[in-house]
Amino acid sequence: MxxxxxxxxxxxxxxxxxxxxxxxxxxxxxxxxxKVADVLLWREKRASAVLLMGITATWFLFEVVDYKLITLTCxxxxxxxxxxxxxxxxxxxxxxxxxxxxxxIIEEAAFRDTALMFHAKLNKLLSKIxxxxxxxxxxxxxxxxxxxxxxxxxxxxxxxxxxxFMGLVSMLTLPYLYERYEDDVDRFGQKMNRKMKKxxxxxxxxxLHKIPRGPVKEKKKx
Length: 222
Prior knowledge:
By secondary structure, the chain is an all-alpha fold. The protein is built from ten helices and no strands. The chain has helices spanning 7-12, 27-30, 34-40, 45-64, 69-93, 108-133, 138-157, 160-180, 182-206, 216-221.
């Protein structure tokens, strides 16, 4: 009888080209690993939930309540100091156990991991932009110009704060959803990639191929 491989085996042996954006590493490693990736993928559910609620509350205060940055910062510190003062004063009067205030509020490792991840991603993005701008990949050049134009049009109708809020919420939700529905997203991405290639071939044959170009190659040969 013929033997058929299971779907799980085929998923484990999928080539990097079948993955979204052609990645070869798991999504956790792609995000840099460590605590930052754990938070973005909701493996640290409490930290992820607190961060999402904090981002939402900050957006609400700035966009809806129309708070100013300095005013909000001062009110936060005033409220925190009053709460700590009442807590310590009540502990002395009612003989409560005094709260243990840590000497280190924010861990250095969290800032270091975040900075390293953003540094690596930004460096990779800038290198890719320079590579495309030098004319090495005309297809990616057209796609980058179109994407930047679409982003500029979005910026005309959406404020920077709303755009930043949507970006942060997407950063906290899309990686988790992608990891959960990875196979379905990869299959959909493959279909869209094939359609985009067909459209580019048609554009190249009907429009781009007919554009006259200067004798650059001949000059280089000479």
